[in-house]
Amino acid sequence: MLIYRFFLALSLAFMVFGLSVSGSRIVHELTTIILSPDYLLTDYMALAGVGGAFFNSGFLMLLFTGLLKLLKVNPSGASIAAVMTIGGFALFGKNFFNVWPIVAGVFLYTALIGENMRTFLYVAYFGTALAPISTHLILASGFNVVGLFLSLLVGFLLPPLASFCLTLHRGYNLYNVGFTAGILGMFLGSILKAYDLAPAPRFYWYEGHQVLLAVFMYAVFYSTLLYGLKLNGWSFKGYKSILKHSGKLLTDFVLLESEGVTFINVGLLGLLGTSYVLLSGSALNGPTIGGIMTLAGFGALGKHPKNIAPVVLGVILGAATNAQPFNSPSMTLAVLFGTTLAPIAGEFGHVWGVIAGFLHSALVINVAFLHQGMNLYNNGFSGGFVALFLLPLIEAVRQLKNRMISSSRGEGNGN
After folding, report:
1. Which chain regions cross the lipid bilayer (predicted)?
2. Domain range for residue 137?
3. For the chain, how many structural domains are there in total?
4. What is the tens place of the pLDDT at every residue in 266-300?
5. Which residue ranges in the chain fall short of pLDDT 50?
6. 131: in domain
7. Which of 19, 364, 378, 414 has its CA 20 to 30 A from that of 294?
């Protein structure tokens, strides 16, 4: 019940904020959001308006919270990560039309194999990364029934692919469905391009109302931190326990620690993410707030300040030395979303975390063309490849180190 209360408060806060900003324009803004293409990078604040973007986000979080309730799910850290990620991306790509064909496709697969609807529930939630495909296939030229069928097929394919992709990176990429969606999107994007149906490049990036947005985001995450402190007896007792976890999937802090400590972590990560965007000179907008919401949401499912810091440092090193401006949209988002690789730092140490972040900063700007922007979790796609590349190298270095130590000990014993 405590997590449901949090979802309700967060959803209503976003909706009320959206209504207060846009007022009577809200219907027009929401209509624009639903009918317009929304593949990467489409900031709903720049496309339609700040109010419409926030109302869409809050309403979508409310709907997915209701679905959890309808299916009688006992919410956990995975629930927090899923709902907050949906809310974040509802500011730049997801809306209350384009997510449902994907969700329905996942549920159709679940029903046909005879599983409980809750089995692949979070695959459905995170699978809405491919929501822009629904808009492109169904609404690009009026309502297309064939496009609806293809969108359902996309959702239908996600569960078996997601289960397999998890075995590839072994849980060291927290955005597993983002990696899955990237691979599926790569094939779909290639087919669309082959038949000259691929969308044209798109870039919407909002830079207005910075004070207003900063006040709202700080209020949201300070309130979350205070909520956690209240549940935890107005203390940080037990918070150090979170920092001991590597964060590898599935590290659910609600189940492993407590709700109070989890919300403290969620609030802290949200404050850190918001502060980074402002201090770096970038802008608070749909994509960056989406990144902050995802960072904070996964504060319930694997991320904490200790394991994200090396990855963030690695991305910053890449941003400071590569051809991209340090606070460019791509590098700012890489810092926020690149924390998907936090388990590498948590499991193998800070050095490997820095290396992972550095590699991610280069790879993430070169993979979006593969899926034609149809996979909103582009950093999850990139993070999967970084993990695939690093894991065997880490193992090889460990074996070499152990062999050298064994040889050294052998020589010592011989002397």
Report:
1. 46-68, 75-92, 98-114, 121-139, 145-166, 173-191, 211-229, 249-272, 278-301, 308-324, 351-370, 376-394
2. 2-194
3. 1
4. 999 999 999 999 999 999 999 999 999 999 999 99
5. 415
6. yes
7. 19
